[in-house]
């Protein structure tokens, strides 16, 4: 009796499963990638150091880019007097927002700073003016550091950091000395290392950056027609 009932039930279900009534998913590859992205991944110590470099590059390059943009605008608006208060890229909203998302803090230090609070003893190896010089380290289970040279790459910066009487007018230098009485940050030329960027990062921020950096992103498919 049970066999007969099962056969009857199967006959009733078969019409509901006809091939022409099955809706096939068109984005199965995208779904598979997304499912893989959300899987818990084991991040190794080497991965965290790699992510520290990525995060440090991203943060300091954003700061450099924003500094050039802001200083260009301010110099056009009102010369050095208007630009001088804005030579602090670590305080810019976009840079600050990115730093918070990475649980990071950044600062610039130099052997010849404009602001005495940025004074630091640096070795010649730390002042090699190449973009490939990076130093990353893990100080503890929860803290990472990143460092790279701060290089004068834009002639725009000579308006404040070049040679007095050549790149910097006496009037502009008087403004600099009025605000920074102990200024040492002049006499540079394009290509010189002026100091270093130093970034401190927390492990959760580094791990999150690694996860986002390695997440797969599907390319948009071109329409067939």
TrEMBL record:
Record-linked InterPro entries: Tll0287-like_dom (IPR021796)
Annotated Tll0287-like domain residues: 96-200
UniProt protein name: Tll0287-like domain-containing protein
Species for this entry: Hymenobacter gelipurpurascens
